[in-house]
Every structure is written in C-alpha cells, then in structure tokens.
TrEMBL record:
It comes from Sinocyclocheilus rhinocerous. Its main location: other. Residues 402-495, 532-619 form the 3-hydroxyacyl-CoA dehydrogenase C-terminal domain. GO terms for biological process: fatty acid beta-oxidation. It holds the Pfam family ECH_1. Gene3D superfamilies: 1.10.1040.50, 2-enoyl-CoA Hydratase, Chain A, domain 1, NAD(P)-binding Rossmann-like Domain. It is found in: Peroxisome. One of its GO terms (molecular function) is enoyl-CoA hydratase activity. The keyword rRNA-binding does not apply. InterPro entries: 3-OHacyl-CoA_DH_CS, 3-OHacyl-CoA_DH_NAD-bd, 3HC_DH_C, 6-PGluconate_DH-like_C_sf, ClpP/crotonase-like_dom_sf, Enoyl-CoA_hyd/isom_CS, Enoyl-CoA_hydra/iso, NAD(P)-bd_dom_sf. One of its GO terms (cellular component) is peroxisome. Keywords: Fatty acid metabolism, Isomerase, Lipid metabolism, Lyase, Multifunctional enzyme, NAD, Oxidoreductase, Peroxisome. This is Peroxisomal bifunctional enzyme.
Length: 636
C-alpha cells in the first residue's frame, strides 16, 4: 500500500499505492507509519519524499471504508509525527491532493506541485469538516479568510492558485517526484522549525507531572512552612484527574497526612466515576500522593495550583527550583497574577508558563496558556500540547492582569454593578449569579490588593470614587456581611443551603440597596434591557479590542473561544467579538461614545482606538481585523 525505496543514496521515497487515487485506507496509513519509522531511524536517510502512484498524490480518506469502524492507525497522530520529524519531508503532488490527502501534504515541510495538480478540502461536500488538521494548518499557512473560503466551499484549486496562496513552494511542468527529490536534497541543511505549519516548536513529551495546591484554610495554619508542605485543593484535584485520565503519572502533593488521605479519596473517587462513565478502567496506578516535595525531584513538569497569593506562589517556586531537576517545566495555575514575576524567582524563567484552568478543572474545557515574555517557545508548545492531550480547548494569551478572560470580565462586572446602583435589580441570571457561583470573596480580595477597598481606604473620601474613577462599593458591602455566594449559601441571592444552586432573590439585598441609594441620594430609575445589554456587552467587547491592541490575544477568534468555553457566553452569539461585529462596529462605537459621554468617570466605556480604526476602515469582518492590529505578541 506504500512502496519504500532509497533514491540518490540518501532520500527515502515513499510512494502511496492504493489505486485508483491512493486514498488513505487503513493499510495505507499503516504503510506510511512504517515507512516513516524506517526513514527517520535510518542514518543513511537525510530527507523524505512522499508521492502517489499513477499520477495521483492522494484522494483523501478511503471512502470505501466509511461504512465500517475505524481500523488501523488513526490519521491525526500519524500526520503530527510526520510534521514533528527531524528530517525534511517533501510532498510531490501530481493529480489530486484532496481532503486527508491535502492534510497529508500540509504536514510535509515542503510541497512541490505539478502544474496540472488540483488541491482542496472537499469534506464539506460530504457533510463533514476536515478533521485531520486542515482547519488548523491551512489558516496558519494562508490566513483565516482564504482558508475559510476553501474549507467552507470545498473548492478544488489549481497548482498555480496554490502557489499564489502560499500553499505550495514550487510548481513544475516536469515529473513532480523527481523535482521533489532534488528539492529534498537541498533542504537537508535548512532548519525545519519554521516549516512546521502547526507548531513553530516541537513540544516536549510529558510522562510525569506533579500537581500541588494549598487550600485557603492551610494558608494561615502553616504560614511558616509555606512551599514546604503544600496541599491539594479543588483545582489541584481536578488537574490531577485530567492528567491521570490521559495516561500521565501524577504526584499529587498534600500538606499533611490527614489532608493526604482526604485528597487521595476524592481524586480516586473522581477518577473512578469518570472511568465508569467512559466505560474504561480507572488509571489509579498512575497516582502517587505525597507530603514531601523531595518526591518531585524527577518529574517532567509541575503544575502549581496553590491559593491565589503572589507571595505564597513565589515561595513555592523558590522551593521547587531547589528540589526539581533543572529541565523541569514549571506551570502556574493562576487566574490573573503576573506569570513573569513568578518566573523571576525561579532558576529557569524560560521554563515557566501559565496554565489557567477553569473550575472544575476536570470538567471545564477552556485552558488559557499564558506566555510570559521569558517563556521559551518550547515551554509554550509543551503547555499547549499537554492541554491538547488533556482534551482542553487551548488559547495562547499574553501576560497581563487577568490575561484575556478575567481582564474583560472587570468592565463587564463593573457595568452590572453600576446598573444595580442606578436602577432596577432586574437580572434573573447573568453577572450576579455567575459571581455567586465563582465566589464573591475572589474579586473582593483582588480589589483589596489593588487598594480599591479595605481598612486603609476611606470609603467616603470621596464617596463612590476610587483612583480617580467611579467605584461601586456594594459588592464590598455584600462581602463584609460574609455573603460570598453559593458556597456560603448567601451572596447576591439566597440559596437553600451552603453550596446550594437554587437561587432566590433575597429581601436583605433589596433592603441593602434601598438604604445605600437613600444614603447617597440616588433616585432609582427603570433601565431598559437594551441599555443593560449594551453597557455590559459593549464594555466587554471594548476591553477585547484593547486586548487585541496590546497583543495579549492574537486574534478576535481566540477571545471568542475563551468566552464560549470558559465563561458560558451564549454559543449562538459566537462570542463577544463576533457579537460586536454582528451588531455592527459602527453602532457599538456610537453607543459606547454615548454611554461614555453620560459616564465620563468610567474609562472602560471610552471606545478603544482599535474599534475607532476598524470603523474608519469600513468595519471589516472579524477575520480581517488582524490586518489592522500593529502589536502582535511574539509567542501568539
Ligand atoms: C480523518 C478523515 C480525513 C479526511 C477526510 C477525507 O479525506 S474525506 C474524502 C475527501 N476526498 C474526496 O472527497 C475525493 C472524492 N473524489 C473525487 O472528487 C474524485 O473522484 C476525484 C478524486 C477528483 C477523481 O475524479 P475523476 O472524475 O477523475 O474520477 P472518478 O470520480 O470517476 O473517480 C475515479 C475512481 O476513484 C474512486 N475514488 C475517488 N476518490 C476516492 C476516495 N477518496 N476513496 C476511494 N475511492 C475514491 C472513485 O470511486 C472511482 O472509482 P471507480 O471504481 O472507478 O468508480
């Protein structure tokens, strides 16, 4: 199903032989895998050429096998391995490279096409999507809009158009295979890194990881020993489960034997329930629990998930630097702290990266991979690849307070609380239910740390203003009453019990609001649904535009993915940035200008320069915004 031969003494020529169009049957995939293994392990081979017999490169998945169950090696790991290999691979495309065949060509480091060749991703015409990397690699190669057009129409393109788009490196009138062999010989000395379309850098393979956390309760009780006796908290447990269920050995670090036993039982219970649901056996043998940091000395990677406190995290990373091997990667699970400041206290800042999981970590799909300025490409690639292995939707983001998701949340929540202050407490769901679920004390602590509230701040001097801008102290007042949300049974709403989910309006909150408004002479007025939506969502999107300008997210689609998978943004709206484009950027700008004029002390309502620029350029569609953004984070 594939012929393997050595030509020109050093080029492995792999010829697919599955007539009539060399489709990727299970036997062909198996033969490619075997041939690649030979080529990569044979020291005589310096480069590889893949071509197809009888003037056809590859017609894609073998549609004759569609009716039966998948047999043989799966295509995606096979393609990833070709791309990741250390010897240059050249595709010699004659006839057709369609569907999986095109995806095979995309993982080759170079593509030579005969002038009569045709390429395309016709999956959509079969009612499916390209699932072997085409939807990721093609946009990276030729940009989102050109790739989307090809993916959504299934159109075949000529070799000439492929050359113009940057899909192929050379078009030839001669025998493409012979040209490719010569090309491969010249490619031997050249670096491969930039030729890998999906990954600029090869990730490390992670076989063992440690997960460590310190529960909030332990913070005060063990202050002297911080970093030496961490314990596994809610996030740590979820992360440990995610790792173990994909076959990675996990050392979970606890602070003391009693907690060790509780943690062990909880993780084992979670893994057993998960395995039962999936009809597999639980991988309990991969788990080890310890109270000694010394046990972490040989792990490939550590995911720190201690309580969200910078001083504590720094202590932990200093301890880890002493204990772990110099090559061990350090990941911090923080929801907004400075990853670079943590990297700075270690002996290996280039091996430090943020992995922002969302709670519960074994359920929520989203993972923000936070790239610090000193995180190496390999470190980022490894975190991205580990996230993929864990089944996460991963988005690489830059390092700034709150990263993307939580940074955008601030203006959104601010608007909701200002609306609460001004008018009707009319949200049945939304910000307030979400805040109750997340825990109101989380934001309260952040505001205290940033000097917005707390015992050092005089709330009346001046009232309802902090750091030169409008400030609503109502959330602080709720927290001061010990109402931290669902976990305490009381928050913005009241619940039937601690941890309950059945939210009911609480008359005490209504009284608190009325007292507050009368103290400050606020006349409540009805606020239209339109104003609520516009002020909250346009402020959210406006921060998204700023994030794009700052190079903290690489593209608007990344922001939308974060909001869809991490923050429950309604799927049918497509995410905050897509929603803004659907509403019309001109309208978003006009409404933000209107609201900013009415609330000049709320800087988040001031339209961002990027939004203005896009409107001035005729409001291009989302996939074209990137062309108008100057700052791009080098890693994203
Ligand atoms: C993880 C999954 C990975 C990827 C998904 C996919 O790849 S989906 C499949 C994508 N590929 C296609 O949709 C290609 C479909 N085929 C065509 O468009 C045309 O057949 C093609 C290749 C352009 C050739 O057209 P032409 O007009 O020259 O010939 P004809 O259509 O009569 O086909 C000739 C014979 O080839 C057989 N054939 C074509 N494609 C496949 C295929 N993918 N698998 C198996 N067999 C294929 C076709 O049935 C004809 O056979 P015959 O016995 O002569 O009737």
């Amino acid at each position: 199903m594939a012929r393997y031969e050595l030509v020109k003494r050093s080029v492995a020529l792999i010829t697919l032989t599955n007539p009539p169009v060399n489709a990727l049957s299970s036997a062909v995939r198996h033969a490619i895998a075997k041939s690649m293994e030979c080529a990569l392990s044979d020291p005589k081979v310096t480069a590889v050429v893949i071509c197809g017999e009888n003037g056809s490169f590859c017609g894609g998945a073998d549609i004759r096998e569609f009716a039966g169950p998948l047999k043989g090696p799966p295509l995606v790991p096979l393609l990833d391995a070709i791309e990741a290999g250390e010897k240059p691979v050249v595709a010699a495309i004659e006839g057709v490279a369609l569907g999986g065949g095109f995806e095979l060509a995309l993982v080759c480091h170079y593509r030579i096409a005969h002038s009569k060749a045709r390429l395309g991703l016709p999956e959509v015409t079969l009612g499916i999507l390209p699932a072997a990397g085409g939807t990721q690699r093609l946009p990276r190669l030729i940009g989102i809009s050109a790739a989307l057009e090809l993916i959504t129409t299934g159109r075949h393109i000529s070799a000439q158009e492929a050359l113009k788009l940057g899909i192929v490196d050379q078009v030839t009138e001669q025998n493409a295979c012979e040209v490719a062999v010569e090309f491969a010989l010249r490619a031997v000395a050249k670096p491969l890194l930039s030729r890998r379309v999906s990954m600029p850098c090869k990730p490390r393979e992670i076989r063992s990881a440690a997960v460590m956390g310190i529960k909030r309760e332990c913070l005060h009780g063990h202050e002297q020993d911080l970093g030496m006796v961490p314990s596994l908290g809610t996030m740590g447990r979820g992360i440990a489960v995610c790792l173990a269920r994909v076959g990675i050995s996990v050392i979970a670090v606890e602070s003391e034997n009693k907690l060790l036993e509780t943690g062990r039982q909880m993780v084992i219970g979670m893994l057993e329930r998960d395995a039962k649901r999936r009809g597999v056996s639980a991988s309990l043998n991969l788990l080890k629990f310890t109270i000694s940091l010394q046990d972490l000395k040989d792990v490939n990677l550590v995911i720190e998930a201690v309580f969200e406190d910078m001083a504590l995290k720094k202590r932990v990373f200093q301890e880890l630097s002493k204990v772990c091997r110099p090559a061990t990667l350090f990941c911090t699970n923080t929801s907004g702290l400075d990853v670079d400041a943590l990297a700075g206290v270690t002996d290996r800042p280039h091996l430090v990266v943020g992995m922002h999981f969302f709670s519960p970590a074994h359920v929520m799909k989203l993972l923000e991979v936070v790239c610090g300025p000193r995180s190496s490409s390999e470190t980022i690639a490894t975190a991205m690849s580990l996230g993929k292995r864990m089944g996460k939707v991963r988005v690489a983001v830059g390092n700034c307070p709150g990263f993307v998701g939580n940074r955008m949340l601030k203006p959104y929540i601010d608007q909701a609380t200002f609306l609460l202050e001004e008018g009707d407490f009319g949200f049945a769901m939304g910000v307030f239910r979400m805040s109750d679920l997340a825990g109101l004390d989380v934001g309260w602590r952040v505001w205290k740390e940033s000097g917005l509230t707390g015992s050092d701040v005089d709330p009346e001097n001046p009232p309802r203003r902090r750091q030169g801008r409008r400030y609503c102290p109502i959330p602080d007042m709720v927290c001061e009453k010990g109402r931290f949300g669902q976990k305490t049974g009381r928050g913005w709403y009241m619940y039937d019990k601690r941890g309950g989910t059945n939210a009911k309006p609480d008359p005490l909150i209504q009284i608190l609001l009325e007292t507050y408004r009368s103290k400050y002479g606020i006349q409540p007025h009805n606020i239209s649904n339109q104003e609520i939506i516009e002020r909250c969502l346009f402020a959210l999107a406006n921060e998204g535009f700023r994030i794009l300008e700052d190079g903290i997210a690489a593209r608007p689609e990344d922001i939308d993915v974060i909001y869809l998978f991490g923050y429950g943004f309604p799927r049918h709206r497509g995410g905050p940035m897509f929603y803004a484009s659907m509403v019309g950027l001109e309208r978003v700008l006009e409404r933000l200008e209107h609201y900013h004029q009415a609330h000049p002390d709320v800087p988040h309502l001031k339209p961002s320069p990027l939004l203005k620029k896009l409107v001035a350029c005729g409001s291009p569609p989302v996939q074209k915004w990137r062309e108008h953004i100057k700052t791009m984070h080098s890693h994203l």
